[in-house]
Design a protein that fits this description.
The chain is an alpha+beta fold. It is about 45% helix and about 15% strand.
Length: about 180
């Protein structure tokens, strides 16, 4: 099932009710989510191989589970980075992509992962996706600005002679600070 098909199955009142249950701290922004849903229903989907995957992740700090939304397109870790990943359990797992910055037209064309569909109620899926796709704002312009800012900061850090390269937890990770 495509995300576009899913959002047309339910009215705003049902979606809003579920959204408020899952994200009670977003009560003040509920009209923003409503506007996003209205806009989504006017956008023509753009084909993509990416599918929406929702998994329960345990947060060690908060000591509770939360729904983690990612995109997967069938690419294996070992295919995306053969120097880093081997032909083992981790290398044969699919790459998980952050999709919060993805154009909404592509979101609409994404299939909902079969396992996610069987594990989560459809209204929960809609609510989790609305939350994820509005991570940086309630308009696509807000999201484009956020992406541009991230790109600008990354370029500045890369070109800044005073920034230091710091190794991450994995030996292949490094960050400019």
């Amino acid at each position: 099932m495509k995300f576009k098909e899913l959002i047309y199955k339910y009215n705003w009142n049902d979606i809003q009710s579920t959204f408020k249950q899952l994200y009670p701290d977003q009560e003040k922004s509920i009209q923003g989510y409503k506007k996003v849903l209205e806009e989504l229903r006017t956008i023509k989907p753009v084909a993509t191989k990416m599918r929406i995957v929702i998994e329960d992740i345990f947060d060690e700090y908060d000591k509770k589970y939360y729904a983690h939304i990612t995109g997967k397109d069938g690419t294996l870790n070992k295919e995306s980075n053969p120097e880093h990943f081997k032909d083992d359990e981790i290398g044969n797992q699919e790459v998980s992509y952050a999709i919060e910055y993805t154009d909404w037209a592509e979101w609409l064309a994404m299939d909902i992962d079969h396992e996610s569909l069987s594990k989560y109620p459809e209204l929960d899926i809609i609510a989790h996706c609305l939350w994820e796709m509005t991570f940086c704002g309630f308009t696509q312009e807000d999201i484009k600005k956020a992406v541009a800012t991230i790109g600008k900061r990354a370029e500045e850090a890369k070109n800044n002679s005073s920034s230091r390269l710091v190794k991450g937890e994995n030996e292949d990770e490094s960050f400019h600070i």
